Amino acid sequence: MSAATRMAPLQRLQLETLWLLCRGFAVLPRLVRYHVVGNIVFFLLCYCLRYRVKVVKENLRNSFPEKSGRELRRIRRRFYRTLSEIFVDTVSLAGVRTPEQARRLIRFPDAAGQSAATAGRDWITMTAHYGCWEYASFWGMWDPSQVVVAVYHPLRSPVIEALYQRLRSHRNTQTVAMHECLRFYLRHREGGIGGKNMVIGLIADQNPPRRPDSHWFRFLNRDTLFFDGGERLALKCGLPVYFGRIDRVRCGLYEMTFEQIYDGREEVAEYEITERYVRRLEALIRERPELWMWSHRRWKYRRDE
Question: Fewest C-beta in 10 Å: which of 73, 75, 89, 276?
Fold first, then answer.
């Protein structure tokens, strides 16, 4: 049952109102959306609301102890600029319904090579909360022979959950809640979705619940937990895994490339696939730290607790 079908009449009215606002915002000129509304959102987040500023400061200071206070302040301001831009990017998804519109937002420079390498085969891409990660699901518009299974963490608010479902509903894209991912894949493994192969898209840098057997990775100068669901699915089903690298070209435009980190057959040590992902993500963040979501409470747990 979808989030929309579980809502009360008042919640449904709230949803439709928000959706109309998003649709109206999406048709505004680019100049208005990014350079007027985007600047207002940046000013509010950075200087008025000071959105999670303590979390951002702490995360940056612990991750880059070698940087000066001036460098950290510059990264922090640029992060809030990124955050405001992502707000505009996400709301503007309400106006994206065709491949032509999607191609004005994200490029896949090696789309032909990636399609050839994965033709007739399911595969996993592991990316992160870096830049506008929502654009990654547009791969299904570039390669119509594949369906992107966008795995997400459900939100508590049924109204916002249903709104995000609409914003993420693109051609050749299927959203699946995180806890349903394995069951969903095994259920559709034989026939695919509409006869098409699946690309399991995982935002793999979220903070997982701590378990007695949790494995710790050294990441950005700290011991860190990572979800290992992508690795488990890859090993169980023999699926190749790619690191999905997202690069910002300019305001509202990104590029995405895929680097294979597991071929689906290689004998690997436990947690080796996740370790390869972690190392590539860390290198990417160090290149352009302002594009990662420093406002997440990423390090809730400590290894010595």
Answer: 73
CB atoms near residue 87 (< 10 Å): 16
Sign of CA dihedral 70, 71, 72, 75: positive
Number of residues written out for the chain: 305
Beta-carbon contacts of 174 under 8 Å, excluding residues fewer than 6 positions away, are: 147, 148, 149, 150, 193
Q: What is the pLDDT of residues 216-248, one digit of tens each?
A: 999 999 999 999 999 999 999 999 999 999 999
**Taking the chain, what is the end-to-end CA distance rounded to the nearest angstrom?**
39
Please, are residues 200 and 146 in contact by the beta-carbon 8 Å criterion? no
Three-class secondary structure of residue 111 per DSSP: helix
Number of neighbouring beta carbons within 10 Å of residue 222: 15
Beta pairing, strands 173-177 & 123-127: unpaired
Beta bridge partners of 247: 255
Reported as a single tens digit per residue, the pLDDT across 92-138 is 999 998 999 999 999 999 999 999 999 999 999 999 999 999 999 99
DSSP string, 41-80: HHHIIIIIS-TTHHHHHHHHHHH-TTS-HHHHHHHHHHHH
Phi/psi zone of residue 252: left (φ > 0), alpha (ψ -120 to 50 degrees), beta? left
Structure tokens at 6: 């579980």
Sort strands 216-219 and 197-203 into parallel, antiparallel or unpaired: unpaired
